[in-house]
Amino acid sequence: MSTRLLFNAALAAIFSLVSGCGGLDVGEQIVVQDEYPALAAAFARLLEEQGTANLGDVIVSSGVPVGEWDQMFSVSSPISNESLNKKLGTRGVHLAGLNSDSESMTQVFLSGGKVVYAYEDKFPRYGVTRGHARPDSAVSPKSHVVKELAGERTAWYLEIEGFS
Fold this sequence. Notes:
The chain is built from 4 helices and 8 strands; from the N terminus they run αβαβαβαβββββ. The chain starts with a helix and ends with a strand. With 164 residues, the chain is α+β, with helices and mostly antiparallel strands.
């Protein structure tokens, strides 16, 4: 009798795993896309003109197929899936093709807490350094002085407004 009870308990456990009732969280796999050249060009143009724009406008004007989004996170590599999901506020998301090079960065777009698009951001990178960006985040040029052997020079970069 106890063997039959044990068998039924094992069947119930397997059924709950397969049906998703309190079982294994397999999550969602998102394929990281290559950098979109038109987006890199739009950022470079904005930097060259030393203009300011909303991030959403830059994304739309470049033609990147992001779709509707409300948050963008910049993710540095390497990063574990656990740390990635903690940063994004998601559960079970796995980014397929996430570069493991310590110099790489991936931009991840979410809509309503669900990842909708991710791309590898190659140098020069245009990411958010604090928290996450929104479509209305300001993208603006900033400068800093770089000290070199031959003296000092002004280096320009784009800052994307971040929110916590």
